[in-house]
């Protein structure tokens, strides 16, 4: 070793010793201060902020950057006619923020957004959120054991698109900021897709995407077109038909319109249940009764999962019931039955209750156009059969990029670009961790329980899982963790093998397969949501590599600190000495 080598090596050896000395002055289990940067202030970002605010995660400097002008994610962005949640309202909430004041069994997007804003205020979560700030990239710096996150301010527009190569709304210079942990909570319902139809720019009327809809658009008495019959298209169709003078619905694929989720809690013959003030008051005064009700509703949703397994009695029953129900509702226009009723399994496409949708299609002022679109025209749409139709308003309910590919470059260890890697193969561990991405988490990544039940409950479980790993970093003197090579691929192999027996893999065009018929089932968890929750409770730390803040062997246990618990020497500290 040369003299120069010693000069370079010296400071590297001194730093761990200094670190160990500082640790020796602290009480055992004192959490090291960490900085977290999170992209996105939807449900995931709010739940993480709550973990910090309530002390589940201590000594954390949390920054949440939200590209839009307000918090709320999906429920902030989506304002199309009829936008609502088909999960029962009393299950679509944070368990730490119960809401006995929901107006009805299923609630609209504005009411959900109001709930999220109220939660942010009540629990003091806005202090962590910076709106109009868009993350555009991140890079792991191995020498510093930190992420460099790049962001830009946005110009104040309500919705800012988050998609590869899209810079609309970004202003100012790059803002580069370091953090110990980077969390992607940006979601996947935000990179909307326009229909791949020629001459879209030539249309001179009002053209809006359901994901960027302006409620000021007046549909009353207008000739309206809705393109698409996914969840958004179904809801928009049912709402638009009530006020439009004429409605044309462009459909390419059949889909099941199922019974409402948790429908046994709704009185027979009704599609909705509105809660009166007496019921709300009872739940407020008797929280245990309210909790029991919520658990009963959730149980009803969870026990439906066997329906998604191919050739089960539950699947056969669901298919038989749904087909009979759809044909009965389409009796006024029997020609629609063969077009709209699928032959694939129920659940291959996302089951959509679609209250009022089939009735809208059968209305006198509604026309269903089957097949591909040829092109837009100056005044409307030309269908594949050559017929041109004129419209005042066209609503494109044509979905999102559901590929799970990060919207911006994320450069991890060894120069690995997650954006490029997941373009080839989105292999993910527990839906939250990617290979070669130290100190990086993603909410609801590939392999999430998106097929059934409330996603908010899943988000809460992910936060608990992420929090456990962060606390280990803080308390055991680790500067980083990283998934061991091959673990993501092994996890994915198990996932895809198990999913092969589900109806999600049947031949149907599905958003879960990113709009394809036969795409890989990267979206789904290999099991029920309860199975996923239990897995998140398992701490398989042997699947990770850990980097110590004191790499020298003799300092490996410097995290024992001063050998005392705080309450042993601090009279005012809480703790039981027995």
UniProtKB/TrEMBL annotation:
Protein name: Steroid monooxygenase
InterPro entries associated with the record: FAD-bind_Monooxygenase_sf (IPR051209), FAD/NAD-bd_sf (IPR036188)
Annotated transmembrane regions: none
Keyword list, A-Z: Monooxygenase, Oxidoreductase
Domain of life: Eukaryota
Coiled coil spans: none
GO molecular function: monooxygenase activity
Native organism taxonomy: Eukaryota, Fungi, Dikarya, Ascomycota, Pezizomycotina
Family: Belongs to the FAD-binding monooxygenase family.
